[in-house]
């Protein structure tokens, strides 16, 4: 077992997700919108966020991974599941749990910008700049985090802790 220290409570997360949902709904009102969940880490944030977005939208799922069982990026992104919806002419919102080095988001932006979407924007629950290697533009941010390896609310360490309702720092 590892020691966990709570850094963002379930209540704080739920409040912030609702605020983000309102903000996003205003931006896309009346526009064709596809919201993409980046598996696995974004699964809880995504499912709460889409329920607080009031404008009509489609959803789809993409699977990328680079951390494996480690707390540092392998710098190699495995892309094992693509979306199934055609995004041409539609606005795309990529939903992530965390932008850390930025490598994953840079990869996703390159992928989806190449597919003639009307726009491609990014929503992330957490943005951690201490280890940022690629500068990526993020449109909607839940919380800025200074440092530390985080688990819970979708985020894992070696596949553990994803189902916790709060965000916690892992003491390895
Ligand atoms: O900015 P980066 O340094 O690229 O890190 C962010 C990415 O790392 C995690 O995914 P991971 O590879 O752990 O896969 P997972 O979502 O299945 O946990 C996280 O969910 C992001 O997708
Ligand atoms: O802090 C983190 N926790 C879990 N997964 C991650 N992937 C990038 N950064 C993190
Ligand atoms: Mg992970």
TrEMBL record:
Residues 10-157 form the Phosphoribosyltransferase domain. The keyword Membrane does not apply. It comes from the Bacteria. InterPro entries: HGPRT, Hxn_phspho_trans, PRTase-like, PRTase_dom. Gene3D superfamilies: 3.40.50.2020. It catalyses: IMP + diphosphate = hypoxanthine + 5-phospho-alpha-D-ribose 1-diphosphate; GMP + diphosphate = guanine + 5-phospho-alpha-D-ribose 1-diphosphate. Its EC number is 2.4.2.8. SUPFAM superfamilies: PRTase-like (SSF53271). It is an enzyme of class 2 (transferase). Belongs to the purine/pyrimidine phosphoribosyltransferase family. This is Hypoxanthine phosphoribosyltransferase. The lineage of its organism: Bacteria, Pseudomonadati, Thermodesulfobacteriota, Desulfovibrionia, Desulfovibrionales.
């Amino acid at each position: 077992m590892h020691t966990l220290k709570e850094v963002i409570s379930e209540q704080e997360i739920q409040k912030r997700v609702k605020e983000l949902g309102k903000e996003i709904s205003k931006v896309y009102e009346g526009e064709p919108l596809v919201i993409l969940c980046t598996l696995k880490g974004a699964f809880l944030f995504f499912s709460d966020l889409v329920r607080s977005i009031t404008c009509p939208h489609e959803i789809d799922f993409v699977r990328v991974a680079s951390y494996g069982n480690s707390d540092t990026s392998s710098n190699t992104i495995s892309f094992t599941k693509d979306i199934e919806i055609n995004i041409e002419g539609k606005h795309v919102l990529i939903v992530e749990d965390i932008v850390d080095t930025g490598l994953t988001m840079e990869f996703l932006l390159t992928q989806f910008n190449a597919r003639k979407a009307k726009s491609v924007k990014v929503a992330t629950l957490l943005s951690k700049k201490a280890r940022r290697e690629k500068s990526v533009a993020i449109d909607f941010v839940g919380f800025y985090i200074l440092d530390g390896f985080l688990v819970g609310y979708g985020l894992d360490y070696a596949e553990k802790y994803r189902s916790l309702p709060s965000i916690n720092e892992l003491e390895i």
